[in-house]
């Protein structure tokens, strides 16, 4: 079935936004530490949509089809024994859907890297890479490039090969990725430039070989909370603070932004505490205390929402999962209340099991996520997706996949679009404010 978002208001916004843009809407931004974030298949992205004739909603369904693997991945991480290895770049299942411009080396080489809040390390395909398809970083033309030795602590952080009994060597590591993919990388360092900021000696994986089809074509930038992440490696530069606004998947010319550092962040923003899980230091856990459908507070057993570092249960905010996933009993309760209030005949479509005729849409209730100290009433476009034929609107959320014994709820990027999400790791809180960044 041919599908697309039906977001006429966004089209209007996009047109008016486009008229305010300067000559080249894809040109690099702007002020210091303010980076464009664009959907991986957006107009300004170098990547071609996998199916150019396909609608955006189909593309989203395609992307969301990787969510079960990512959920499984996130769940496996939280179930792992505590370890001193906070980074797992190659184990990410979903490639994520938003990229940011970054430059590596001196002079800088432009790469469009996927931004991923649930991972720490960065990695980039390098010249000579076997199996890589896209733009490659050429270390031999960078005057600041160096590989890192197997003896450095960072090599332990990436589970690199240990040093031979005699002598030393560069730090090689191999990671699985996407279930069907893996890569081999040399732990390296070079200058990472974001906006006008240059971070010297940034440790990243220089990818030498890939197998499989799920590797992000120009690498990945980890924005997680652990020791190899951008916040950790940039020292005091960003004071432990960043925010992003993700434009709609459908956005065309314009882009959202990744803002690094405390300057220019919204002042009056509602916040909720970030919770720390020492067993999984990369993840941004929040305290989801309830969900409302319309005015009805959905009955959810508190233990299903409770944060437990040992089991990994609780709720995270993630930029790499496409649609929000709740553990099955929570999803069922939300869906049942939603159906009660819409009272239409329902059908299924892909991952979505609550689709109905859009003529019922005006009675579709708003969904509110209640976080500790912060209520997020979802805009309609973050709640429903529509068929272009006009025949269906679907509740754009889903249960954790059947084969995943998940205890984790994941607030995903479809539900974060056109919001500014502020991550303040120093004050340990997350802020959310409405912002149209289409
Ligand atoms: C750098 O490496 C590339 C590919 O490995 C090679 O084609 C190129 O000639 C090298 N350039 C220099 C300046 O060594
Ligand atoms: C990574 O290691 C696995 C298992 O040893 C191997 O099958 C795979 O080919 C390796 N990947 C790369 C890209 O070398
Ligand atoms: C989550 O918020 C509730 C309600 O404010 C509170 O009782 C609970 O202790 C919080 N949980 C954590 C882990 O902070």
TrEMBL record:
Q: Which GO terms describe its molecular function?
A: aspartic-type endopeptidase activity
Provide one Gene Ontology biological process annotation. proteolysis
Q: Which residues form the signal peptide?
A: 1-18
InterPro entries, from UniProt? PEPTIDASE_A1 (IPR033121), Peptidase_aspartic_dom_sf (IPR021109), Plant_Aspart_Prot_A1 (IPR051708), TAXi_C (IPR032799), TAXi_N (IPR032861)
The protein's UniProt keywords, in alphabetical order, are: Aspartyl protease, Disulfide bond, Glycoprotein, Hydrolase, Protease, Signal
E.C. code: 3.4.23.12
**Which SUPFAM superfamilies does its entry note?**
Acid proteases
Where does the Peptidase A1 domain lie? 98-433
Q: Name one Pfam family in it.
A: TAXi_C
Superkingdom assignment: Eukaryota
Q: Which PANTHER family match?
A: ASPARTYL PROTEASE AED3 (PTHR47967:SF15), OS07G0603500 PROTEIN-RELATED (PTHR47967)
Q: Which family does it belong to?
A: Belongs to the peptidase A1 family.
**What is the name listed in the Swiss-Prot or TrEMBL entry for this protein?**
Aspartyl protease
């Amino acid at each position: 079935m041919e599908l697309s978002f039906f977001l006429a208001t966004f089209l209007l916004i996009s047109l008016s936004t486009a008229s305010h843009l300067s000559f080249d809407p894809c040109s690099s931004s702007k002020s210091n530490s303010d980076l464009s974030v664009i959907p991986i298949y957006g107009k300004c992205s170098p990547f071609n949509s996998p199916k150019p004739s396909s609608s955006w909603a189909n593309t989203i369904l395609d992307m969301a089809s990787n969510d079960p693997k990512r959920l499984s991945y996130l769940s496996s991480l939280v179930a792992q024994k505590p370890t001193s290895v906070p980074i797992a770049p190659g184990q990410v299942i979903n490639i994520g859907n938003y990229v940011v411009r970054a430059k590596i080396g001196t002079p800088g080489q432009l790469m469009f890297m996927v931004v991923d809040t649930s991972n720490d390390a960065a990695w980039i395909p390098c010249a000579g890479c076997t199996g890589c398809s896209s733009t490659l970083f050429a270390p031999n033309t960078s005057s600041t490039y160096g590989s890192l030795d197997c003896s450095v602590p960072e090599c332990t952080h990436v589970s690199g090969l240990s040093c031979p009994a005699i002598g030393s060597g560069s730090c090689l590591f191999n990671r699985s990725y996407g279930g069907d993919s893996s890569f081999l990388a040399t732990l390296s360092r070079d200058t990472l430039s974001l906006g006008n900021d240059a971070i010297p000696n940034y440790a990243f994986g220089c990818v030498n070989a890939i197998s499989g089809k799920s590797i992000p074509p120009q690498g990945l930038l980890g924005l997680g909370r652990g020791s190899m992440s951008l916040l950790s490696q940039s020292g005091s530069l960003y004071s432990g603070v960043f925010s992003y606004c993700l434009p709609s998947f459908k956005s065309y010319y314009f882009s959202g932004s990744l803002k690094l550092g405390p300057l220019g962040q919204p002042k009056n923003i509602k916040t909720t505490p970030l919770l720390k899980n020492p067993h999984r230091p990369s993840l941004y856990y929040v305290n989801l205390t309830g969900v409302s459908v319309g005015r009805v507070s959905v009955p959810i057993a508190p233990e299903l929402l409770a944060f437990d570092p040992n089991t990994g249960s609780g709720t995270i905010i993630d930029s790499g999962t496409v649609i929000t996933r709740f553990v099955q009993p929570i999803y069922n309760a939300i869906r049942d209340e939603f159906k009660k209030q819409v009272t239409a005949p329902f059908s299924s479509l892909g991952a979505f099991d609550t689709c109905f005729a859009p003529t019922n849409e005006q009675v579709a209730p708003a969904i509110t996520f209640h976080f500790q100290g912060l209520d997020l009433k979802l805009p309609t476009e973050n709640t429903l997706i529509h068929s272009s034929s006009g025949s269906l609107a679907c509740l754009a959320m889903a249960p954790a996949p059947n084969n995943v014994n998940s205890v984790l709820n994941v607030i995903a990027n479809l539900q974060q679009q056109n919001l500014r999400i502020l991550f303040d790791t120093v004050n340990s809180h997350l802020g959310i404010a409405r912002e149209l960044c289409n």
